[in-house]
Amino acid sequence: MAKVKVKKRLPSGRVKIVERRKKPKFAKCARCGAILHGVPREIPSRMRKLSLSEKRPNRPYGGYLCSKCMREIMKEKARSMG
Amino acid sequence: MYERDYERESEVDGMIEVGKVCLKIAGREAGKYCVVVKKIDKNFVEITGPKNVTGVKRRRANILHLEELPYKLEIKEGASDAEVLEAWKKSKLLKKLGLKIKPGKVEKEVKKVEKKEKPKKQKETKRREKVKEKKK
């Protein structure tokens, strides 16, 4: 587990160096690589405490594809039907 | 930043008619089918599933968020949900698109009332029979 050193001021006024868990990278679209909106950048233990609707957008492929790519996939699906 | 999709706008311009079956391509209803009921203006139309058929409520939708399919239902402009449901039943699309009609709100309530009114049948077990005999 990668850790980061953070300076923290104690109640006594002393400054102590504290180790904290590093945050993971931003969630990215699987098709175009754009950063996904609405997906929090949190460590897994914090992520577990969130509700399902806080973790990803409520739409098909939410949290996996960006909205633009999802739209294109839906368009392809519609056009292949005819 | 929001960019206007001029290509898509020119594609869609004036193509959507009343009765067209469409696929929603944006938002949480993306991937669900709907029927165009009414034209509101250049950009907006009124659509409906109805909800118990496809899961899309009666609502206003931007034309850019719809992708039309090569199917059409025969309905009047401003048709009610019941009329659209009948049009779905008449066409053979329900099977083709893999849709199922779920019982609506009204039908569910009727079923609930029917259940309450029915008297519960007691199962005749050996123990109960013995008790009856003793009483005699």
Q: Could you please describe the fold and organization of this structure?
A:
The complex is a heterodimer of chains A (82) and B (136). Chain A is α+β, with helices and mostly antiparallel strands and 82 residues long. Chain A has helices spanning 44-47, 52-55, 67-81, and strands at 3-9, 15-21. A two-stranded antiparallel sheet of chain A has the order 1-2. The model of chain A has no long low-confidence stretch (mean pLDDT 92). In chain B, 33% of the residues lie in helices and 21% in strands. Chain B contains five helices and five strands. Chain B has helices spanning 6-12, 81-90, 93-97, 105-117, 126-135, and strands at residues 20-24, 33-39, 44-48, 59-62, 66-72. In chain B, strand 2 (33-39) and strand 3 form a beta hairpin. The longest helix of chain B has 13 residues, at 105-117. Chain B starts with 5 loop residues before the first helix and ends with a helix. The relative contact order of chain B is 0.14.
